[in-house]
Q: What sequence folds into this?
């Protein structure tokens, strides 16, 4: 396939039109080397020089990221922004970004990916952001403790940012919004959810959790947003027989 066909494939899978007007990210090709053959696509969370260099070393033609370089406001092409764009252009590496479309997708999105990892049932859209539900809720067939949930996610208390264990010891219902979804915990409280999982940690919601008797896991912005890129990488490989690779550049945050 070529870059034009790849763009059509991503747009069909991710249904990007649903977030037009509410997502500050420039979703789609942010750096496009033109209509050329695509033999290998690398996937990652962040657009950064480190990620770009690894993609080039892996002979990728396109790098797909969740966090791109353009966020709805003009930015001068200087300093690190200049270095990043120069590297992409000089190395013929195209850059593709998908932000909210990759969070909310019910097949290969970050939030549903976490739900699948936890083997949740009765999945429903959750977490209204500017009128669009970007997260998911679900339930366990059998109640689980927080340590069991961390095991299912292949992480532990040392790796996550913070656990606020202010709710039930045994958990049945979970709401999930990856990345920076701390404020949406109010919606989890409204639905009497046992555990809220997000990426970031915010001082202001500590007492909200304590007084609301709800558990919260801040599992890391980076970690919670690796699920979508990995799932889409696998799907592209299976659907189009294009070689794919996931580039892991964790920030610990």
A:
């Amino acid at each position: 396939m070529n870059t034009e066909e790849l763009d059509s494939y991503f747009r069909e899978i991710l249904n990007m039109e649903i977030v037009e007007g509410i997502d500050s990210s420039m979703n789609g090709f942010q750096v496009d080397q033109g209509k050329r053959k695509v033999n290998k696509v690398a996937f990652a969370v962040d657009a950064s020089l480190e990620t770009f260099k690894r993609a080039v070393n892996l002979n990728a033609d396109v790098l797909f990221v969740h966090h791109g370089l353009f966020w709805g406001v003009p930015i001068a092409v200087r300093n690190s922004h200049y270095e990043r764009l120069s590297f992409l252009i000089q190395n013929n590496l195209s850059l593709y970004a998908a932000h909210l479309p990759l969070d909310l997708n019910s097949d290969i999105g970050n939030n549903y990916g976490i739900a699948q990892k936890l083997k949740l049932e009765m999945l429903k859209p959750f977490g209204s952001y500017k009128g669009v539900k970007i997260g998911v809720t679900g339930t366990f067939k059998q109640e689980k403790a927080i340590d069991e949930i961390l095991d299912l996610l292949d992480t532990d208390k040392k790796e996550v940012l913070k656990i606020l264990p202010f709710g039930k010891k045994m958990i049945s219902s979970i709401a999930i919004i990856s990345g920076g979804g701390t404020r949406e915990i109010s919606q989890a409280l409204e639905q009497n959810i046992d555990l809220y999982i997000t990426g970031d940690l915010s001082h202001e919601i500590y007492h909200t959790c304590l007084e609301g008797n709800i558990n919260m896991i801040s599992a890391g912005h980076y970690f919670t947003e690796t699920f979508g890129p990995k799932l889409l990488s696998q799907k592209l490989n299976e659907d189009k027989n294009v070689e794919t690779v996931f580039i892991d550049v964790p920030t610990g945050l």
Notes: The first strand starts at residue 28 and ends at 31.
